[in-house]
């Protein structure tokens, strides 16, 4: 049966679209063109000083700036911080509504403060200014359609009856004793990779959605007195670890799955040194966009 001119034209257009899509996928940059970073630090939260929320902010800010500088990426990222009176659910959501994001960009959001969970499974950030549902924050980030969304939180996820979940305080001496051990960043290698490469792999090469919090649902997270959370202390240490100490993917890049396995185990060890139990939880670990 002969194909009409109209049908042939439609077929040609469809074929051209497929070919163009194939070229666009193949031509996609191997790295994100830019990473947009937001730190949400509830420094007005209950016992914020004792729990080290501000210390978490300083640690994260420092490791990000150092890694970007060492990797010559200072013109390919932005860093914004909402803390104190600015750390409110409304301002966080407004930030993402107004953020201009390209399809080739990556987003990182990090939170330090209080948190909790509903027995139905939903996790939330319990800021002094109000509650922000984790799903709502994640949807706001995903709605910008970047190549990578990373949501990290250092807070509790317990089902307590009190209106504000609290990060309990661990003993500093035991935390310090744990830090004297070699950071278990998987393998011991004789060759050193360039500083900051682990962070570059995770943020600039990653795709999909990564969603990690400091402890499992129904549990609490712990802090070293005034030094910050176990989760953040571990995270910062591992981001400074040489990338060649992690198992890389087939393309030689450190992925979030490998990184999280080490992050989870190392956080557990730090907590055990303080006679506590804490195991980070991953809701998502990336993948194809």
Walk me through what this model shows.
The strands form three sheets. This protein has a six-stranded mixed sheet, sandwiched between helices. Strands 4-5-6 form a three-stranded antiparallel sheet. Residues 1-27, 162-166 and 172-192 have low confidence and may be disordered. It is built from nine helices and twelve strands. The longest helix is centred in the first third of the chain and has 22 residues, at 5-26. It is globular. It has helices at residues 5-26, 48-51, 53-70, 89-98, 134-142, 172-179, 197-205, 230-239, 256-273, and strands spanning 34-41, 77-83, 105-112, 114-117, 123-127, 130-133, 148-154, 168-170, 208-213, 222-224, 228-229, 281-285. It has one domain (31-285): Rossmann fold (3-Layer(aba) Sandwich), CATH 3.40.50. The protein starts with a helix and ends with a strand. The chain is of the alpha/beta class.
């Amino acid at each position: 049966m002969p194909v009409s001119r109209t049908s042939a034209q439609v077929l040609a257009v469809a074929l051209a679209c497929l070919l163009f899509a194939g070229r666009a996928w193949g031509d996609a940059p191997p790295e994100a063109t830019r990473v947009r970073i937001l730190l949400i630090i509830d420094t007005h939260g209950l016992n914020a000083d004792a729990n080290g929320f501000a210390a978490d902010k300083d640690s994260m800010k420092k490791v990000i700036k150092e890694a970007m500088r060492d990797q010559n990426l200072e013109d390919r990222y932005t860093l914004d911080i909402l803390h104190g009176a600015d750390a409110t659910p409304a301002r966080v959501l407004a930030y993402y509504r107004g953020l201009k994001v390209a399809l080739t960009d990556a987003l990182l959001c990090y939170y330090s403060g209080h948190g909790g969970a509903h027995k139905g499974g939903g996790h939330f950030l319990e800021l002094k200014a109000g509650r922000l549902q984790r799903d709502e924050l994640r949807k706001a980030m995903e709605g910008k359609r970047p190549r990578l969304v990373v949501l990290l939180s250092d807070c509790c996820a317990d089902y307590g009856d009190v209106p504000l979940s609290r990060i309990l305080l661990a003993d500093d001496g035991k935390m310090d004793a744990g830090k004297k051990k070699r950071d278990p960043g998987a393998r011991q290698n004789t060759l050193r990779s360039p500083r900051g490469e682990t962070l570059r792999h995770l943020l600039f090469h990653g795709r999909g959605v990564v969603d990690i919090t400091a402890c499992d649902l129904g549990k609490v997270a712990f802090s070293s007195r005034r030094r910050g959370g176990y989760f953040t202390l571990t995270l910062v240490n591992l981001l400074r670890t040489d990338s060649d100490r992690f198992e890389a993917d087939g393309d030689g890049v450190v992925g979030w799955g490998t990184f999280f396995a080490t992050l989870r185990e190392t956080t557990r060890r730090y907590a055990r040194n303080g006679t506590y139990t804490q195991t980070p939880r991953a809701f998502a670990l990336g993948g194809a966009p």
